Amino acid sequence: MRADYIRIYKSVHTWTGILTGMALFIAFYAGALTVFKEPIARWASPHAAAGLAPLESAPDLIARTLAARPDVAQGFTIHLQDDENVPARMGWEVRDPQAEDHDESAVRHYLARLDADGAVRIEEAHPSGLGNFIDVLHRVVGLPVDSDPNRWFMGVVASLYAIALVSGVIVLLPSLVKDFFALRVGRNLKRMWLDAHNVVGIISLPFHLVMALSSVVFAFHDGIYDIQDRLMYEGKLASVFQRSGGPAADTAPRDPSAMLPPAELLARARSLSPSFEPIALQYAQVTSPRAVVRIWGKDPAAVSPRARGGFVAIDPYGGKVLNTDYLPGGQDAANLWISSFFALHMASFGGAAVQWLYFLLGLAGAWLFYSGNLLWIETRRKRADRRTGEVPAQRRDTRLMASATVGVCLGSVCGISLMMIAAKALHGRVGDLDAWLKGAYYAMFFAGIAWSFLRGGAVAGVHLLRLAAALTLAIPATSLLGLLWPASGLWAHASPAALGVDATALAVGLGFAWMAVATRRRLARGDADSAWAQPRPVPHFTT
Fold first, then answer.
1. pLDDT attached to residue 540
2. Rounded distance, CA 280 to CA 287, Å?
């Protein structure tokens, strides 16, 4: 390929990367954590006041709850897993009809229990929004609200990201075989970082292509669904999620006590796929002719259409299977094709091994964008005069980009860690915990940016890495403190999922501590004309 073409593609790769790198860092770092969104939600949930009622008591629980609250017939869930973030067997949500769809504060959560006398007790629940907000940061590249305009912005970022990937491969093609596994370690740190950037980028290229293309699909999925509805469902896509009603004249309310017990409904679902593992029964419109129960679950051997799994729709009264279009392992080719976009993006296939692989690839992707900005900055530095040793003042654009890169990237890391600490430390002590968590994240995020511009990217990088290490190591410390001192209001869980969060935070915190030491060493011993060198005092000479 001609050298002038390579220069054009290199320029495209550089500028698309610069325009999107910091946003993509937040998306990938938060996305790596979102892979374990459910374990994080379990870790952040306090001990339940009581264990789940036996599943055999669910019909009585449903009947008594609907007698006390007829409006709950519109929709409720029977939980099957006794996890830390499941406080009761039965729960439901009530959304303010005047609120925006993305306003999570407009949703109120309720649960129902049977007391020792068999009477139903209804309480308002306050589940932690920690995992959901980390997911929002991932889905809309650090913006605070998962709204349509923010998703469209994310779609533009993802499109530029795809262009950066393609142009980067074209730039590397002439030397791909020679430089693929080259990692030249030595005094030329820029060369070493460039080699590492190239190797990580090429090895993880399929993963990044999947992320870029699927992100574009998610950003503009409403339009895609409209096309799918017209071409594949003839305008009847909504029927996948709700069963059609009976005759128009049949409007008499149905008796929920006549519904099949959950055990029998679960048996019907398992008969369709023996490897399907149900996690919840989601009932809707149970007193109407359109009553349906969606049995959600996962199948480790199949592709799941959503992060939480998939579902089979069943008539809760007669047990008839209404729809299997979203059943893992039971989808036709057309639906499987659509579901693959979700599964490949959300790691909802292959079990725990794929989830850990995606977690590591997510962290590697965050480092890829961070290192790309560092390479841009280092390439544009002004070098010291070889004859006099005079160190020139660096360009303003490189100094500003260094400060922005360090502040945005490490400010986001510190913000997420602080938010996880606050999820336990503030529980039960503030009114709206989710609002406090968001406030803690953005306060730390903007403080990190301000500190980076105040002190400069080189010095602030050391400070913020130390802070990131301290805050991330404090995550397992909250569990340890809760175990040793329950009166502190903290808690610790012994489940593998919760312990996994603590262990992972410990490993990541130690990694940040090592990076802080290495960055401090570079600050002190690096080239004096580097953008990452310790600022030298200007000498004053006297006569």
1. 47
2. 20
